[in-house]
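Predict the holo structure. Ligand: magnesium ion.
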Amino acid sequence: MNREPSSQPVAEHRSERVTESKKDISAPDGLPVPSRNWALFLDFDGTLVDLAPKPDLVEVPAGLTELLQKLFTQLDGALAIVTGRELCDVDGFLALMLPGAGIHGAELRRKMGGAPIVMDDSRGLADVIAELEPLIASDPRLILQRKSAAFTLHYRLAPEREAEMRDLAARAIRGHDNLELMSGKMMVEVKPKGANKGTGMERLMQASPFSHRMPVFIGDDITDEDGFKFVKNHAGLAIKVGNGMSSAGHRLASPAAVYEWLVDMSAYFERKQGQ
Ligand SMILES: [Mg+2]
């Protein structure tokens, strides 16, 4: 497997495009030819959609839902969303109830259309929110996003308050040993201790149709590093979107580059099917 150093620059998407006559699919950044034996795990924000000033404002690219539906079928159901959001939130954007791990692995849905199940202990969350809310209420730029088993404090619109928000959240969870903080892009999350995207994928991989497949994970944030570690420990493929330090062995430049690669992947599977 290709394992470039983590400091590598983002490759120009398609700069290494290989023509059909030489190879069956374009291979940006040395990505291997796809296999229908992959278990494909996709982060949502910053990976399938561009980040937005507020979580509710992300825009789903035209054709993405149809593309994911098609890949889901082509991979015999082994396609899942692995996100910090609640799965029902992503369902709403995609108009599709894909399998997945939500809330950084604390929530699980093994089959398309199933009800998500909270897997980890989130006791005390309401008390932490009750302590924090009055402290941030005077600044409308701070957004507290509630989830069933966690919450996220977004400060994207007030970046100068970053250190203060992290301190506040750290103080609010004192005495709640089952909870922990996780930092991401312009946000801090309070979630069940130990839950992360790696544990989410591990749980999905325990059952059909994910088990016995090669895990492939695409993500963009520091919170995706647990997922990269998991797939690398299982001889899988870790793909980082955009710049920044990462343990992932591969890069795609942007959500648009992810989309193009997925389109190529689906077309490749279709051609193979027809042969
Ligand atoms: Mg992300």
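The domain at 125-192 is CATH 3.30.70.1020 (Alpha-Beta Plaits). The two ends are 27 Å apart (CA to CA).
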